Batch of 2 targets.
Target 1
Amino acid sequence: MRVIPLVFLMILAAVAPVLAQADNVADCAQAARPDIGVTGCTAMITSGRAAGAELAAAYNNRGLAYRDLNKNRLAIKDFSEAIILDPKAADLRSNRGVAYAALGEYQLAIADYDDAIRMDPNYAGAYANRGNTYVDLEKYALAITDYDRAVNLAPNDARVFYGRAIAFSLTGDHDSALQDYDRAISLASDYTDAYNNRGITRAGLEQYEGAVQDFKKVIALDPNDRFAIENLGKAYAKLAWSQYLANDLPGTLRNIESAIAADTRFAVHFDDYGHVLAAVGRSENAVDAFERAAQIGGPAYAKLYQQALRRHGYYRGTIDGSFGRPVLRALRRCIDKRCRLVK
């Protein structure tokens, strides 16, 4: 599960009425394009025109750009320069802590968050970031304590509820996790990570219909989110299987078809489909579904069918992972007799 760190970009003002310098200021504050941010901040730093807090801000912003580019060593170097120039700025310590945490240097990260909190006891971002690091260290009680403080200080920041939800989920307190995911989504209706993780939590609680809706929402927001696409297919399959066990064959068929439509990469979806088709008397379609499952699953999956058909007495060939005519004939005979294969 992904936790979003809280980092802070400093606002820069041009230090001289020169057009090129003003452009550098704008570029240095460019959060959306870190490559442009690095170029603009470097120009400011090397120009000799910036000093004091202005120069510290340039180092900080370049550090954030380096962090976004996953160049965390360079980010740490820049944050350290900024701290020398502006030693009382709590956000510089917290930003460096995030870079240390990204490198797995958790104790250095916590030391920076501790310093930031000592400098500003009401700094929600430092509490939240320390909570993120405690999650990485699997110290969930400490993480939740920090998130509680961050929630009290920043009750309208969706990220702190999201972070606490992850910590609750990892402790097994799924009801509290769902409440925090709900709160995060109410504050940020396009929060795809929150929808994804709420869907996972709901699926774990066998709330498959709710999970399906969460994953569909993610895909509506980001059609290329492979994580949500895969999870949607799995949620549909789980829902279908629960309906199959309840003898709701129409509902099972509808949802397993939705699982396949969501993600065609999983042999198990086609295997489930074959069983359901066989149960409703669509024998030829069932054979096609089992064949597709074997194609996706490869020889190892085909061997499962060969072994199952041999146990039922319909196949006497070798167990070699092939899916030729002898296996297809055996499948048809098995399906006609309503035998069960892998399930």
Note: Residues 208 and 239 are 6 Å apart (CA to CA).
Target 2
Amino acid sequence: MELNILVLLFPVLLYFVIKLLDKKTSTKPSITIFMLKLILIVSSLILYIGNIGWLYRPFTKQLKVKVYDADTKKPLSCAHIRFSWLYETGTAGGLQSGPYKSINLRTDSNGEFTVPSQLKPISFYAIPLIIGRYSGELVSVFQHKYWSFAETYDGKISDIYLESLKSEEDEFNMLKSIAGASHNVSAKSSKCKDMSDDEITFLEDDFARLETEYPNSPLFEDVILVMISMYNACENKTAVTDMENKIVAKFPNGKYSRAIMYRINRSAR
């Protein structure tokens, strides 16, 4: 918020600097003052004309959204919500959108969650067509025994309906997709910057639930590998070791288990 205000006040501050320099210089205008006036005009055009919408409505609306079971149409309580405000950057030839702020919420007993009003970031337009602008919202919903949901919006968000998981394979595929692709765990440099503690807890709880419901499922091997990748991205060595012990215990003849045992035996020499 402070940065938004400071950037928009830049032309105003520059104007007073020019007025002050005008008083201290002779009647003949200097090249410095001329250049400052040029900067003032250009910066005013870029900031104020490019942010007419922001000046008219600088805050997003407070949102109330409900989450339902798609089959029974009953509200889902305690669903995990990740709500992100998006900012788009790049050039006219290639734009990339990503979150500039995210919050984690839960649905109440009526399946409802409330998103607070948020100050929008200001937009930037410059030459050669460098763009930075507010581009909407991303809503991600996670609930045990349901397919996850992720959708982008532009200020108008409708109620959300989650499809229930129908099989053991669905259960494992859902956990893999959340722990894997949804959080970009392949990039170790991210250090879990795209994951909150709440989301990691959700994944760990779902993993524990599957261990109880399907203790001998052969589908566990792929899930454990994805969890190991996730913990590696988070640089959580203790959790990685725990998961490696699980995969060796459950799948002693598996390719990954043999690699782990080979590494352990080699280090013990």
Note: DSSP finds eight helices and eight strands in the chain.
